[in-house]
Amino acid sequence: MKKLFVILEFFYIFSQLSAFDLTDAASTIEDIFSSSIDSNEGNTVFRSMNIPSGGRTEALGTAFTALADDSSFFDYNPAASAVLEKTEVSVFHNAWIADSALETVSFTRRNGTLGYGAQLKCFYVPFSEYNLYGDRVARNYYSETSLTINTAYNFLAGYTFKGLAVGLNAKFAWRSVPDYTDNRTDSVISGSGLEQSALGLMADLGMLLRFNALKFYSDRTENLKVALTLNNFGVALTGFGSSVTQDDSTPSRISASLSYKPFSRVTICTELRKPFLFTDLSSGTLSFASGIETQITPIFAFQLGFLLQGANPRFSLGSEFELKGIKMDVAYTLDLTSSANPVNHISVSAKMTLGDRGRKATMEKVDASYLAGLRLYAEGYYNEAILKWNEAIAIAAASPLCIQFEPAIQARATAINFNSQKAELDNMYAIDFDDE
């Protein structure tokens, strides 16, 4: 009951925040950041690819490219599937502007150092057509639907150095535009929804580097991540009612991101993004995103985020709580980037973890063999210790871990070196004894 009370309290707070009227503040902020406006902003199709799925990522200001530690990674860094600890199935809902919404479902899984997954997204806006007399003659939806197929691999994965993960997303998107009744004829579709609909073929490339630096706590997880990605580069085709032609450019961008965890319960994320087109035109100025997450308890976390994109910033806050293996996220966003007036909206997500495929249990076996080797070495049984360390190395290198276990490798090398020096000393002693 206590957990339920906390959840309901946060939903109440977020619902009250959505009632704020900050129109005057938005105008003032827009004047301050007017230099960030690009006259070519928005010269792309499939703009829904830039809308966050919602939940935790949006609460962190969308500064998620380096953090990328759950199934939200599809929109940010395709390399993340190769390093996630657990299999995840997730659903997201983001209530966007003007009655539009974004629905997302995703799945990701990891086998050793190979990760893969898929995501389905649908952005839709209600569409109604009225005649000259004000009668509604058609009701439908404008929508943009995308399917993302992901694969990634973590190179040089080890115990100390976590490896370099590289990933690829292949994206297939479809823009559906409703037909206008007065543009239809029996034989020709001219200016109709099919003519304006579009097919998008896009890809993402990403890399993720993980290691430890300036770490003020002890555990096995890395505390520093660096990421670089190229998102949404590709082509869009239109004119399916007559002749197919290439449409405007897709919303391509390059992102550089950093995630730093100085303390065990605090994570800081920051990110720079630059939209670009494969033409002479630019498509937006450099944007900046940042977020901070505090783990209040093992099952409850709180996030704050900020995004400066164009002349108006976006502020967000959210929380994540875990109930019986399901992580629930709720985020409130004050969005000044979408229109002349501030827009408040709430997004939610649910992520269900389906286990780690035995990685934790296997790591415990590695630890047991390694510690047994240390005990044998301390007791003077060097050859037996080497055998135990060989066992630890072999278990770690096999599935499902597929890592180099450096502590056992280093300990084995020390023991082998000691045995070699001991053999040399014994040989020298034997020679001296023979001479006497």
What does this 3D model show about the protein?
By secondary structure, the chain is α+β, with helices and mostly antiparallel strands. The chain contains 7 helices and 15 strands. The protein has helices spanning about 1-15, 25-30, 55-60, 195, 360-380, 380-395, 405-435, and strands spanning about 90-95, 100-110, 115-130, 135-155, 165-175, 200-210, 225-240, 245, 255-265, 265-275, 285-295, 300-310, 310-325, 325-335, 345-355. A 14-stranded antiparallel barrel has the order 1-2-3-4-5-6-7-9-10-11-12-13-14-15. The termini are far apart. The model is unreliable at about 5-10 and about 185-190 (pLDDT under 50).
Throw out a few tags for this protein.
single chain, alpha+beta, 14-stranded antiparallel β-barrel, 7 helices, 15 strands, elongated
In short:
The chain is an alpha+beta fold and 436 residues long. The chain has seven helices and 15 strands. Helices cover 23% and strands 40% of the residues.
